[in-house]
Write a structure and sequence with these properties.
This protein has about 210 residues and is α/β, with parallel strands linked by helices. It contains 9 helices and 8 strands. The chain is globular. The termini are far apart.
């Protein structure tokens, strides 16, 4: 099972904006997008997930649903991303299709070790720096934090850096041994950045035709 090196985390002031931004990300060559809706009813999240699945299916982009593993199964998303307060990955695994991937959020070495025991497919590790997209932010890690955790962890499970990352950070972050990057803000401001990010991450889409707006 391959995990994309670039994850676009959806943003928007409304559900509709999230979906418009997912469409733009797909048009700009995103390989994987995560639908992340907070403070929205489950009914609205299901409807948005169905629409997001339609959009991503059209572009052959992978779709991950944040938190709601039952919705991820219902819409046949490619997987689910579970936060620290969410369902245990082992519980979700029993429920999901065998081909669906499970990611988990980590802030410390202990978090990472716990997630590896629960057999996640990738770990979102952060925050790299301060970000306003998350409430109750954990202490920022920076490159030294990533380096320290990766040196101890010694795992083949992909570790994805997240939290306030911009294009200029990527070379330095990759030097720590991090597998990939999750970005929301910088991509939402300029979807043409996706092509540049693919080049920096040396991913397949860098070789494909990019759409510009």
């Amino acid at each position: 099972m391959t995990i994309s090196k670039l994850h676009y985390i959806s943003q928007g002031a409304t559900v509709k904006e999230h979906l418009i931004n997912i469409q733009k990300a797909c048009q700009s060559g995103a390989e994987l997008v995560q639908l992340r809706l907070k403070d929205v009813s489950e009914k609205k999240i299901l409807k948005a997930a169905e629409e997001a699945r339609e959009i991503t299916g059209h572009f052959q982009t992978r779709l991950i649903i944040n938190d709601h593993y039952k919705i991820a199964k219902k819409v046949k998303a490619d997987g689910v991303h579970l936060g620290k307060e969410d369902t245990c990955p082992k519980e979700a695994r029993k429920y999901l299709y065998a081909w669906q991937i499970i990611g988990g959020t980590a802030n410390t070495l202990q978090d990472c070790e716990a997630l590896l025991e629960k057999e996640v497919d990738y770990i979102g590790l952060g925050p790299f720096r301060f970000t306003s997209t998350k409430k109750n932010l954990s202490p920022v890690l920076g490159t030294l934090g990533y380096q320290g955790i990766l040196d101890e962890l010694k795992t083949n499970i992909p570790i994805i850096a997240i939290g306030g990352i911009v294009t200029d950070d990527i070379k330095e972050i990759l030097q720590t041994g991090i597998f990939g990057i999750a970005i929301s803000g910088e991509i939402t401001q300029d979807f043409n950045k996706i092509g540049e990010l693919h080049k920096l991450l040396n991913t397949g889409s860098a070789l494909e035709q990019q759409y510009t707006f």
